[in-house]
Amino acid sequence: MRVGIAGCAGRMGQMLLKTLAAVPGVLVVGGSERKGSPALGMDLGALAGTEPFGITVGDDASALFEAADVVIDFTNPAATAQHAGFAARTGTAHVIGTTGLDADQLAAIGRAAQKAPIVMASNMSLGVNLLEQVVEQIARILDPDWDIEIVEMHHRHKVDAPSGTALTLGEAAARGRGVPLRRVARRARDGHVGARVKGEIGFQALRGGDVVGDHTVMFAADGERVEITHKASSREIFARGAVKAVLWAAGKGPGLYSMKDVLGFSVGGSAT
Prior knowledge:
Blueprint: E1 2-6, H1 11-20, E2 27-32, H2 44-48, H3 61-67, E3 70-73, H4 77-90, E4 93-96, H5 103-112, E5 117-120, H6 126-141, E6 147-154, H7 164-177, H8 181-184, E7 185-186, E8 201-207, E9 213-221, E10 224-232, H9 236-249, E11 255-257, H10 259-263
Parallel strand pairs: 1-2, 1-3, 3-4, 4-5, 5-11, 6-8, 7-8
Antiparallel strand pairs: 6-9, 9-10
């Protein structure tokens, strides 16, 4: 299987290079970066911390989609939306881990999925995807007298807030309650904001140090509180999930898929 990595010089890109290079049956055929990146022209092996690949980093993502069976993409929202267009043109499977996408960018990815298999997930770790399923079930069981708050913390370099994972967990809680998240989300509180509105789902984003990713969903009622937490101590867990998505996506028909499809999760059922 020929795999390309868009955003190969980033934190996740380097981890993916190292992980994919060790997977039997997988051949890394290229990596791309933005124009002007200091990584351009470097051997992919230098980024992965392994022996030389004999392949250098380029800035032509469209060529990457032409050369690969699957391209995995941890870049930025504008680039990812453009890359989805390349996937649609070539029919290449596209695995997306980029977060912070706006409505127009999501719509562009949805259109591309009509012509290519696209797996999109804000978090590809097994634990977080399990957490999402549990949160949906708990929200479905508990009545609206239970307040829901989502707290996340990431390293100081993260540019979007709340994290894509936090928003995905919010979507899960909202599905459990049968309401659209956009109607009940409270993204921040500052100043004299008044009493908490019943039924809202609150978000708090913390930034500092080198935290890979911590997420806690709190269900709070009078006299008791349930907290469910996932803490990532290494990006390797995301890389392992991404590799599962890459292997699963190869050869699939057009469509927009999630890690639920990759992992076989279903609310109220067991993994298949």
